[in-house]
Amino acid sequence: MYDLIIVGSGPAGLSAAVYGSRAGLNLLVLEEKPMSGGQVLNTCEVDNYLGMPGINGFDMGMKFREHVDRMGVVCKTAAVTAVTEAVPRPLTAV
Ligand SMILES: Cc1cc2nc3c(=O)[nH]c(=O)nc-3n(C[C@H](O)[C@H](O)[C@H](O)COP(=O)(O)OP(=O)(O)OC[C@H]3O[C@@H](n4cnc5c(N)ncnc54)[C@H](O)[C@@H]3O)c2cc1C
Asked: Which ligand 1 atom lies nearest to the CA of residue 14?
């Protein structure tokens, strides 16, 4: 049983994973694509991220993933097709 299941490992999902991990939550990240990074992976050059001027989007996606890996976050490849709410809780991703 997880405290938190995050759907998607783009910047938003992996940021949530960093905060969840720092809060001591037992969490899981589910990503349907074989790589983390989300839309950033398709970007040639990102110039508006402080501290990483002109970074290639693919490299940025890899850095995001390295960050959560270092924190021990578990990321699995799976497409979530539904999120159901058990009564009264918790939510379950299937
Ligand atoms: C060509 C291009 C250039 C860009 N350039 C810049 C830039 O220079 N600067 C900038 O700030 N922003 C840029 N962006 C925008 C930036 O990439 C997005 O704002 C950012 O990726 C959004 O992050 P996100 O985590 O919210 O969503 P996403 O990046 O869309 O990540 C969502 C993740 O969830 C996964 N997912 C979705 N549904 C499911 C499911 N049912 N089950 C499992 N996994 C699922 C997806 O596969 C994806 O990996 C660019 C975008 C593109 C396409």
From this structure: 25
Domain that holds residue 71: 4-77
Q: Is the pTM of this model over 0.70?
A: yes
In a domain, 61, yes or no: yes
63-73: pLDDT as tens digits: 999 999 999 99
CB of 61 within 6 A of ligand 1: the answer is no
Query: CA–CA separation, 67 vs 88, rounded Å?
Result: 34
Whether residue 83 is contained in a domain is answered as no
Q: Is the CB of 80 under 6 A from ligand 1?
A: yes
- Beta strands at 74-77 and 27-31: parallel, antiparallel or unpaired: parallel
Per-residue pLDDT reduced to its tens digit, 32-57? 999 999 999 999 999 999 999 999 99
